[in-house]
Amino acid sequence: MKVYEYKGFPNPARVRIALAEKGMLDRVAFVQVDVPGGEHRQPAFLAKNPTAAVPVLELDDGSCIAECTAITEYLDHLDGQPALTGRTHHERAIVHMMQRRAEFGLLDAIVAYFHHATPGLGPDIEVYQNKEWGQHQYKRALEGARYLDSVLAKQPYLAGDFFSMADITAFAGLVVFDFLGLEIPADLKHLKAWRARVAERPSVKAA
After folding, report:
1. Is residue 206 a part of any domain in this protein?
2. Is residue 143 domain-shared with residue 168, that is, in the same domain?
3. Over the stretch 93-147, which tens digit does the pLDDT of each residue have?
4. How much is the pTM?
5. CA gap 41, 52 in Å, rounded
6. CATH code for the domain of 171
């Protein structure tokens, strides 16, 4: 298997954490795509993912899977022992619900702030920016962080008592906050404590 990525970006990091959780880092070859240089918009990469986004998982038969949730779903079931996407129907539903809330309310929002309200990846990549929209997304990211804090006040992880892809997504969102030099509000103590615990996981350190 191959993973096309730009190392250090939040979404590729999500897949690396999932691979590490499953003990599969040594089963894939990582291929770097020069996103700041626009390689993701060239025909060769668009043939693998027409949305021009990394990461992409390429299987041995040449077929490709894009989107972090889809890639994680595939990897999680390779060994028949799903852990990151839920073991029962109920767990799977909760994981997907919380993963979407973490993605939409936190990660996607803060990434939109980066692309619209800061120089982002530069004028060659950021062909359209709306600073007002970006500032609105920053406020939405803070609201998302506050919601996740309220969830973590009642349970150790976002989907309950086990680490899941919802936690991976939220952690990636907070990494973007760090990259941008933005502080998580001090009163979100449950989110901060959760983040400290997740940062100590071997999979996160390996990724």
Report:
1. no
2. yes
3. 999 999 999 999 999 999 999 999 999 999 999 999 999 999 999 999 999 999 9
4. 0.96
5. 6
6. 1.20.1050.10
Nearest to 11 by CA among 169, 194, 197: 169
Q: Which ranges of 51-130 does DSSP label H, i.e. alpha helix? A: 68-77, 89-102, 108-117
Residue 181's region, left for phi above 0, alpha for psi from -120 to 50, else beta, is left
CA dist 88 and 123 (Å) reads: 46
Do strands 56-58 and 2-5 pair parallel, antiparallel, or not at all (unpaired)? antiparallel
3-state class of 70 per DSSP?
A: helix
* Boundary (domain end) residue, out of 20, 44, 77: 77
If one counts every other C-beta atom within 10 angstroms of the C-beta of residue 145, the result is 23
Give the pLDDT confidence of 1-27 residue by residue, as tens digits.
999 999 999 999 999 999 999 999 999
* Overall number of domains in the chain: 2
